[in-house]
Structures are given as structure tokens and as C-alpha cells.
């Protein structure tokens, strides 16, 4: 279970909206979450210009890069309370297992990655979940959407995001709004998948099952994708949307960069690429330049990895490349050594890039995910 050393989960401070949606209803709440995280001392100061950010990207994507070892210092405890925006959606007809999914979005998006397109959209994962009789909690990760946006180097880092996810699991196991859930399943996308790996790596079987989308760990992190997305200081890229953010917050440079990183040409609708660009969100230098990938040695529950065949960000565009005799997606088993072989599965949607939910294959992918959960 989540360590009792963690500060106890705080109370609900505001319910903003209750919405009826197809097959259920959703409640938005801002939760104050107290965490203690082992962040890393990062030897960088807030960039004074875009040239400094571009230089960091050049250095980390160099084939002989030493940047990580140059900027990583010792541990640095982050003891803080953050306001995190959440939305809990509960189905009209819950399944017998009273399942709730905890959805963790990736870098470049906020919670709306999971209900993309809104009511009736085939890209809306929340609707697929409610239709299957499951509840789902979506939230804005620290630094995005309507959640707090503290320092992007010292505070918004993976260890802090992992502790926030741990607090949300605790929240879901504590009958939020009178809903008693019997199983909590994590689903992540990209950096959100890495966050869930970090969660079960630290806390073991806190999730009853884990679904990692847009994710593969073979061969380490693909920093070649960083120049592709063209990380740009967010307040410079779009002063209207991001003008208030410190220079440690970055965003993709433009629509062609978003395509390069998240999409596979021929596998998506142009309107969806443009919509994703219009609602894009930020990442922080603290998240991007110090990443974790420790194996989940004590996690034994089922794992499902769902990554597009043409994912550029994690497979350099071809997830069927072999790694130790298996494809890159299957090779993710290496970070789950305690998961039995028959509890580890993969699905590789065809003609699909990194943003799995935003491709034409999304409805089929959602069907595969709900089918996998149904068989647990
Ligand atoms: C932080 O790291 C130290 C040393 O590795 C460990 O003893 C401690 O439990 C960690 N604290 C948290 C909150 O993870
Ligand atoms: C990286 O570090 C190693 C060992 O410290 C050194 O030999 C090498 O020249 C460095 N490479 C670069 C690109 O700085
Ligand atoms: C975290 O901060 C709180 C409030 O300032 C303090 O009471 C507590 O001792 C701190 N915990 C650690 C481990 O630093």
C-alpha cells in the first residue's frame, strides 16, 4: 500500500461542475494533495532565451551525449501541497467488479487527451470506459491545465508526479463521493505511462492492473524525438495561452513538430491534428531532462502495453524493430520481471503514431483495452 509516511490525503475543497455525459456523469474537483518526493537536484537555471533551450536539446540528442550526467546532482526532497484538477466520471450501469481507471496523460497534453472531441466523438476514451461500465478519474498533471504550475526545474519532476499519482490511487480507494471501487486500474499515455511504471516500481501492487499506451522502454529514451518536437519556451511560443509560465515550461514549436512527434501521416484526420495543436499543453525541463525507468521489481499484477506500430517518440518510427529477439513493445516486459508471462500482453495498432487516442485506429484500440480489462 501507499506509504503511511505520505501526508494524509486532503479533503475536497471545491466541486465546480457535475455534468451528465453519455452513459454516466462526471464531477470536477480540485484536490489539494500533499506529497513528499525524492526529486533530483538539476544543475540548470531557468533559460534566459530560446537559444539556451535549443542548445540543451542539441546536447541531449547528440549521439555521444553526456548531458544527463552533467546536470544531475543529488537527491532533493520536495515536500509540498499542490492543487490538482480532477474529473471523476461514473457510469450509469457499473460493472460487477466496480472498476475505476486512473488515467495519466503524457507530455504535450492535459486531461483532455482522454475525452478528446467531447460528446459522441470516437476519440473520447472516457465515453468508451463508461460504456464498458467502468468509472474513470482523469486529471491535469502538475504543471498543466487547471492544476498548479510551480517551478519547472526544481518541483515539476517525475518523482513528484509519481507521488501525486500515488495520492490519487489512495483517493480512489477511499470511496470518493460515496463510490466504492473494488479495483483500480492505471492507464497512462507516454510520460503518463512512465509515471505509472514509476508508481508500481516504488509501491508494488497498488494498482490491480496497468495499461501503458505510447510506451516502450527498449534501448532507453529516444532523445532524437526532442529536436523533432522542437521544444520551445511556452511563453514565447504562445504568449496568449502560456504567457504567465516560467521559462522552464516548454511546448512543441508548431503543428509540423506535433505531427512529427505524435502522429503518423495517413493514420489520422487533418482536423484532429489541428485540434491537438490548438489544445496542446506544456512539459517542464525537470520532467524532460531527468527521466526515470527503474524496473518494477515487486509489481506482479497484469500489464497491457498498447503502442502504435509507427510510434516515432518511443520506437523511432518502427515498433517492430527487434530487441533481444522480440519487438520493442514486447520488450517492455523487461521492466516487469515479477509479472508472470501470461499476465503480460501487448497490442500494436496499425498505421498509428505516438498519440494512440488521436488516430483512426482509436475505436479499435479502445475496444481491445476494454476487452482486455473484461477478461481480468
Ligand atoms: C528518498 O530516498 C531515501 C534514500 O534513498 C529513502 O530512504 C527515502 O525513503 C526516500 N523517500 C521517499 C519519500 O521516497
Ligand atoms: C562524455 O564523458 C566522457 C567521460 O567523462 C568523455 O570521455 C567524453 O568525451 C564525453 N563526451 C562528450 C560529447 O562530451
Ligand atoms: C514537510 O513539511 C511539513 C510542513 O511544513 C512539515 O511538518 C514536515 O515535517 C515536512 N516533512 C519532511 C519529511 O520534511
UniProtKB/TrEMBL annotation:
It comes from Ephemerocybe angulata. Residues 104-364 form the AB hydrolase-1 domain. Pfam families: Abhydrolase_6. Keywords: Hydrolase, Signal. Gene3D superfamilies: alpha/beta hydrolase. Coiled coil: none annotated. Residues 1-20 form the signal peptide. This is Alpha/Beta hydrolase protein. GO terms for molecular function: hydrolase activity. It comes from the Eukaryota.
Amino acid at each position: 500500500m501507499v506509504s503511511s509516511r505520505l501526508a494524509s490525503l486532503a479533503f475536497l475543497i471545491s466541486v465546480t461542475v457535475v455534468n451528465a455525459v453519455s452513459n454516466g456523469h462526471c464531477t470536477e474537483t480540485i484536490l489539494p494533495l500533499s506529497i513528499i518526493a525524492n526529486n533530483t537536484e538539476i544543475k540548470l537555471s531557468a533559460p534566459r532565451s530560446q537559444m539556451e533551450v535549443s542548445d540543451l536539446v542539441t546536447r541531449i540528442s547528440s549521439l555521444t551525449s553526456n548531458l544527463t550526467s552533467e546536470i544531475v546532482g543529488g537527491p532533493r526532497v520536495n515536500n509540498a501541497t499542490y492543487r490538482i484538477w480532477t474529473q471523476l466520471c461514473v457510469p450509469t450501469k457499473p460493472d460487477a467488479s466496480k472498476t475505476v481507471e486512473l488515467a495519466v496523460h503524457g507530455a504535450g497534453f492535459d486531461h483532455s487527451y482522454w475525452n478528446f472531441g467531447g460528446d459522441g466523438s470516437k476519440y473520447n476514451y472516457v465515453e468508451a470506459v463508461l460504456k464498458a461500465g467502468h468509472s474513470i478519474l482523469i486529471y491535469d498533471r502538475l504543471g498543466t491545465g487547471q492544476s498548479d504550475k510551480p517551478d519547472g526545474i526544481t518541483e515539476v519532476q517525475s518523482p513528484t508526479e509519481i507521488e501525486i499519482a500515488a495520492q490519487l490511487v489512495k483517493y480512489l480507494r477511499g470511496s470518493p463521493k460515496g463510490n466504492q471501487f473494488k479495483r483500480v486500474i492505471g492507464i497512462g499515455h507516454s510520460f503518463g505511462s512512465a509515471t505509472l511504471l514509476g508508481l508500481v516500481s516504488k509501491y508494488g501492487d497498488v494498482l490491480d492492473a496497468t495499461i501503458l499506451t505510447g510506451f516502450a522502454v527498449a534501448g532507453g529514451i529516444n532523445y532524437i524525438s526532442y529536436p523533432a518536437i522542437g521544444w520551445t519556451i511556452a511563453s514565447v511560443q504562445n504568449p496568449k495561452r502560456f504567457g504567465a509560465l516560467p521559462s522552464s515550461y516548454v511546448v512543441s514549436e508548431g503543428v509540423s513538430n506535433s505531427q512529427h512527434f505524435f502522429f503518423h501521416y495517413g493514420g489520422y484526420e487533418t482536423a484532429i491534428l489541428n485540434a491537438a495543436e490548438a489544445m496542446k499543453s506544456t512539459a517542464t525541463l525537470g520532467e524532460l531532462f531527468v527521466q526515470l525507468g527503474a524496473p518494477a521489481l515487486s509489481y506482479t499484477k497484469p500489464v497491457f502495453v498498447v503502442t502504435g506500430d509507427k510510434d516515432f517518440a518511443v520506437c523511432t518510427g518502427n515498433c517492430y524493430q527487434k530487441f533481444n529477439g522480440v519487438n520493442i513493445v514486447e520488450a517492455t516486459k523487461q521492466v516487469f520481471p515479477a509479472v508472470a508471462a501470461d499476465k503480460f500482453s501487448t497490442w500494436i495498432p496499425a498505421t498509428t503514431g505516438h498519440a494512440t487516442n488521436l488516430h483512426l485506429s482509436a475505436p479499435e484500440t479502445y475496444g481491445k483495452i476494454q476487452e482486455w480489462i473484461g477478461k481480468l
